[in-house]
Amino acid sequence: MTDEESHTLLVSEPKLNETLWKRNPAFYHKIHLSVLYATIFTLLCLFFLSDSRTSKCDLFAHNTPLWDLVEYETVVFLDNIHELSPFQGPPDDVKDEIWDKLYRNTSTTVIDSKRAKRLPNSTMVAPGTQGDGIVSLENALRKSLYPERFPDYSVFFPNGTRNQNISIHHARASDHCVDRIRQATMCDANIGASFWRWNEHLGKWGINMRTTQTCRNFEKMRLWAVERNLLDWDPKVPSRLTDE
Predict the structure, then answer these.
(1) How many domains is the chain partitioned into structurally?
(2) 74 in a structural domain
(3) Buried-most residue among 30, 46, 123, 188 (CB within 10 A)?
(4) CA-to-CA distance for 198 and 205, rounded, in angstroms?
(5) What is the pTM (predicted TM-score) of this model?
(6) Looking at the domain assignment, is residue 50 inside a domain?
(7) Does residue 138 form part of some domain?
């Protein structure tokens, strides 16, 4: 091909496209509009998705001073029947220690004024804010199952009969523990899936309770609370609320 022929092809190519455009302009307009609408729709979807996620994060951030510390990890739940956790079984010194360690020195946490003012409810200004961890409630219920070791926690006698002489305060405390756990369970609403498997021994399908879940890193939050725990303060000392 000569240089003159090559030049002719390069020059005539735009003219060919221009000719096609003139022959069917409506078709090209439809293509341009379709691309434009698709782009706008995609951008709107990304905007609303981002706004929705941000709103949810902002909502949680105002409900807890720990939101920016939350991180997630994968945890395998045991079935707690064939596989027992270290927390299960009759109480002894070792089990009592690992249960108590879960919430020891975490009940009264001091936070800075900026975090405190972001909370949905006002609380007391220094010396601290009072909390009641769910784990301590679970441990109280665990202790109530073993009256021979924890007589002060049980509403039953060691022989299994109900203690009718228990104080109203103690009975209400146990009821309080149960319902606080109920509220926490409904609030968290675990959406992890359980699976069915064939049980050869029983000859039927059964739920496999050994499942993989996505959980908040409890140890990280526990250490945060321990570092900010306030000891030996007098709750009778006058103070004021954070919104005053």
Answers:
(1) 1
(2) yes
(3) 123
(4) 4
(5) 0.61
(6) no
(7) yes
